[in-house]
Amino acid sequence: MVIHQRADDNPDRDPPEALGSAPATPALGSSLDIENVGKSFRAANGTVMQALSGFSLAVEAGEMVSLVGPSGCGKSTLLRLIAGLDSPTSGELRIGAELIAGPSADRGLIFQQPNLFPWLSVRRNIQAGLVARGVLAECRQDTEHFLRLVGLEAFADRYPHELSGGMAQRAALARALVNHPRILLLDEPLGALDQFTRMKMQDEVLRLWLARRTTMVLVTHDVDEAIYMSDRIVLLTPGPGRVERMIDVGLERPRYRNSPRFLELRTRILEMLHFTGGGAPEPTTR
Amino acid sequence: MSAGRSARYALAPTAAAAAALLAHMLIPNQQTALPTRLYPKLLIILMGSALVVALVQWAWRRSRPWVAHHAPLMAGAIALVGTWDLLTLKFAWFPLPYFPGPDMVLQGVLDDRVLLLESAYHSLTLLLTGYGIGVAAGLASGILIGWFQSLRYWATPVMKVIGPIPATAYIPLVMALFTSSFLSGAALIAMAVWFPMTMLTSSGILSVPVAYLDVARTLGAGKRFLIFRVAVPAAMPSIFLGLFMGLCAAFLTLIAAETVGVKSGLGWYLKWQQGYVEYAKVYGALLIMATFFSGLMTLLFKLRDWALGWQKGLIRW
Ligand SMILES: Nc1ncnc2c1ncn2[C@@H]1O[C@H](COP(=O)(O)OP(=O)(O)OP(=O)(O)O)[C@@H](O)[C@H]1O
Ligand SMILES: [Mg+2]
To answer: Which A residues, 90 through 129, put their C-beta within 8 Å of a C-beta on chain B?
Structure first.
């Protein structure tokens, strides 16, 4: 795949410059296997609600996959399962050969809401993962790097209640990135950002991905974003979610948002979403 | 604010003190009280300092809002003392020995100043010892009960039964347990503080938004981090509520303990002077108690504002 060759071009020269200090172990993406996973919730009134059923997906190490699907189809549920915050009702999830048994700093999750710790300044929020893993002293430099990356240097000592929604989401992004996870799960992390910051952040995430070859699973409602970012796009059925269709993007990187092939793919996907029917297309077609 | 209006505000305390002084000197006494110079002296000092403040705010504009805010309160307080003087010493509408005027109270405080200082010191050490122990114990048990489901199962019924008993009801028990009256007093106060501290800490921990814990777990947090770096800080507003309720309970219990077993402190002094029908000294002790307690409260408020600065705009009390 083209992307992997690009990432291999500069395996170790690029990361240290780009990311300040390199972590002790080189962060490489892990492969992810989701086999026939189902997840149901018991609602307060006793009825069982099926959020996912028979969901299977294999993500290669270092791959970037986008999940696109109508609201409520179980995308966040799936990311929580991969993160290890919940366990599936049926089926198995594996990282490499290992079953996912619980959360780990190796799998970063950026939630739909920023969920910053309101009692910590922006800088200390970003450092939280380093403190949790007891590596703050070694990795202090990383904090400053990621503060700059998300453009929040000037707000490092502010508290979350002083941030705008987009700034808070950027801080949450930095907080997850500072751990250099092997798998990064992003739940519409850029949804709250304005168009320009959004495009800038897309490039930053891509740059990080190329540099660290982190495996990424990105939930998005934005078809352009999915095409611009990912190797593969997974379209989900309305809940209970399962894979409706898999699309190989296959465009060379760097990608151009106005290239004919980009636009052609965009039209194709939008048509597919349209055929899925239901009341859901609005948020995805915009 | 206009200069004229701010000047009127700033001069109000001076005027109030002058009026009180005139009333005190011109109106004949109805209560039979030993004449002292203490009260008029205090009024003159107040008048002088209020005048200085008024001049300062006239020269230094930046101080005007502060002065304008506090001057009416100050004037009101002086007027209140002046009225008290009229109702007691001057018109004797309230009779002796139960209602001495401000003059006698000041004299009483001055006479017993050494004893009062000692008493305040004893009260403070007893209060802080008991409060400290109660807060530490309450924090520990509150965190444990809030975090561990199995502990909560056993602790909830126990708390429900022994929690509502006022600590003072344990006086006989505590006096049997401890030979030292200081220790028994401290134990009583600690018990009184422990209960609200435990309740509010555990309920604070229980209501920590799960999202914060989830985020921390995906960042690689272990149990220690989850408890002490997520749950406890998130529960801080509730914990501070416990600290306040605990402090109020501690005041109550302190005075009760001092009037029963402990042979020193402000509560003991109060009871002792009441026995001698020295009401001037009773009021003196009450005044000192009031400053003492409100000082501690203010300190706790300052601590809270500092510790909970992150939720600015959320605190409503
Ligand atoms: N903890 C829970 N308890 C009960 N039901 C839940 C829970 N979490 C999710 N669900 C249900 O599972 C379904 C999928 O939810 P999920 O949050 O995964 O959707 P989503 O695809 O992320 O939607 P959106 O695009 O709007 O974020 C929903 O119908 C939701 O009501
Ligand atoms: Mg979601």
So the answer is: 102-105, 107-109, 111, 113, 115, 117-120, 128-129
User: Mutate which of A37, A41, A244 to test ligand 1's pocket (most atoms within 8 Å of Cβ)?
Assistant: A41
Residue with tokens 């962060």: A27
Query: Which residues have C-beta within 8 Å of that of residue A112, sequence separation ≥ 6?
Result: A76, A187, A188, A191
Residue of the nearest CA to atom 19 in ligand 1? Answer: A72
**pLDDT tens digits for range A54-109:** 999 999 999 999 999 888 899 999 999 999 999 999 999 999 889 999 999 999 99
Closest CA to B103 of B54, B57, B41: B41
CATH of domain A7-106+181-272: 3.40.50.300
| Residue that wins the pLDDT comparison between B293 and B6 | B293
Distance from C-alpha of A253 to C-alpha of A261, rounded to nearest angstrom: 12
Angle between helices B232-260 and B279-307 (to 10 degrees): 170
> Which residues pair with residue A67 across a beta bridge?
A219, A234
Residue B227 to residue B205: CA distance in whole angstroms: 9
**What residue segments make up the domains of chain A, in order of their start?**
7-106+181-272, 117-166+173-180
- Count the helix, strand and coil residues of chain B and give each as a percent rounded to the nearest 5: 80, 0, 20
Domains of chain B: 3-96 (no CATH), 113-311 (1.10.3720.10)
How far is Cα of residue B271 from the mean position of the Cα atoms in its chain? 19
Contact criterion met (CB < 8 Å) for A161 and B219: no
Residue spans of alpha helices (H) in A191-259 = 195-212, 223-229
Chain A residue at shortest CA distance from B312:
A161
User: Sheet of A64-68: strands edge to edge?
Assistant: A107-110, A183-187, A215-219, A64-68, A232-236, A243-248
Please give the C-alpha separations between residue B133 and each of B107, B113, B172, B219, B240, in angstroms, as whole numbers: 37, 30, 20, 35, 16
- State pLDDT tens for residues B25-53: 888 888 776 767 888 899 999 999 999 99
In the structure encoding, which two tokens stand for residue A172, read together? Answer: 């949450």
Q: Is A6 on the interface with B (CB under 8 A)?
A: no
Q: Which two tokens stand for residue A211?
A: 């540099």
| pLDDT value at residue A15 | 38
Ligand 1 nearest-atom number relative to CA A80? 18
pTM score, two decimals?
A: 0.82
B46-89 pLDDT, tens digit per residue, is 999 999 998 888 888 888 888 888 899 999 999 999 999 888 88
Per-residue pLDDT at A244: 86
Give the ipTM of the model, two decimals please: 0.82
CB atoms within 10 A of CB A21: 13
The more confident residue out of A219 and A27 is A219
Closest chain A residue to B233, measured at CA: A119
Which segments within B45-86 are labelled E, that is strand?
none
